[in-house]
Amino acid sequence: MGAAGSVAGRAAAHHRLLRCAAHVVTGALDVPPPARRGVGQGLINGTAWTVVHVAVSVPIAFLANVVVARSLGAVDYGRLAILTMILALATAAASLGVGSALMQFVTKASEAGRTHDVDRLVSGAQGYNIFVAAPLVAVVVAVVVDVPWPFLLLAIVFGIFGPAVLQAGPILLATQHRSDRAAQIAMISNLVTQVIVVTTVLVRPTASAVWTARIVATGVLMSLPLLALTPRLRRAALRPRTPWSLPRDFWIFAIPTGAAVLVSQLVTDRVQIFFLEWLDDSVTVGLYALAFGLAVQILAPVQAAVGPLLPAFAALRERGEEHARGGLLRVTRVAAIMAGVVLSCGLPALGALIPWIYGVQFAASADYFVVMSCAAGIVIVGSGSYASLMARLRGGSYLRINLVALVSMAAVALASIPWWGAWGAVASMVVGTLVRALLMVVLEMRAYEVDRSEMARAFAPVLAAIVAIHVVWFGWMAHVSAPAWISSPVGGLLSLTLFILAVRVSRTGLTTSDREALVKAVPGRLRRPARMCVGLVSDPRRHE
Fold it and tell me: Which of 47, 48, 58, 537 is closest to 341 using CA atoms?
């Protein structure tokens, strides 16, 4: 889904930084390596390869989305978003938290060397996916989705039942701390999927055809992670057992977590498009959907660090809370700096180019994109708290947090969307996602006895970036008439400069140990320029 070159450049630039962030976390934790692949090694390699995947895949997906948006137009682009949301919500509802529970329980059993328990968990989870979840999703899609019947049949067979058979693959690779392999496979799968989607939209430019092509390609390519598993795990995944063979503790965690995942999807995904569609505003649906998708894409390099954290936090919890506490604080601190750099540089630059790249019909999406990306940045910085919450198996707490966020989001949506249209939808998204993220952060602060001042200091860089962005975008760029090719780089550079100044003046940059760990993770010939770049967002007086 912005200029493809600028997105690719930013993603590549942050590849090293995110890899270093993983090095910082694992280096601080001082975790002894287990007999199988170590958590530290898996986290570093997983984060590095995940970000390589993002650096390659985001530009490709961006270019593909440009072709799709221009070919379909705002109305059909909005319909594509609605079709995608229906399948996503149906899948989240039917999954019942089995994937999240499998991630946690298999990681813990693997760390303890309980291979028999791992096999039993995998087979039981696969039985639920194939015999319960997939038929439920198929019924919902068949009843609700309005597409030609050949497309519907392809979607059910290859886009629903296919992934149900194969979806254990990516989860099990992560539990084995092989997020690197999962990222390599995802990189290939993304390239193939985007080629299929672009070919489809050029041959048949309809929302139904693009939706079907995308989910069929995604479903078929899920066979690759399964093939990458060890023979023992692959056999377990291909021998489904009855769901009630799963232990009681599994379901105690899975059910509330599954409900929380569904509620979380309602809070964090673009469900506001249903409100807009209900008001018969199809054009605004497309504008909002594009802005939301761009907000997700521009933060993808930072989000890439979250995937390897889920199994890593589960393993670290088995070795003591102090390790997990140290990881939580460092992830938050470094993520705030990374998100601040990406947002302050990227939002003004990409926002100015939206009418030029997507066409004037999507020009209004630029303002929505800037505001929603700022909210998403805070959510990304709080992702370490989500990983920690899942590692503590607090599915019930996660559900309650998401319910509070959903009520807040729905209240704002009902009160504002009928009056303000897309801006009401933006307000609803911002309120819901911020309430959800901040409640998780507060809960983990209490669990690890983290001071409010310490966490506020960790979050400060991303807040400084948001202030700088709003000053530049709504203050300077809104009142200066200049071609996009001028306002885009100037706005990005000005916002980034304000961000760096704010971080240095407020002394909320990276600590000395953060900076040294980041530099040491860089190859020798690059350490000098790396030290200079990292030094711009570091505070030499901070030694914690």
Answer: 537
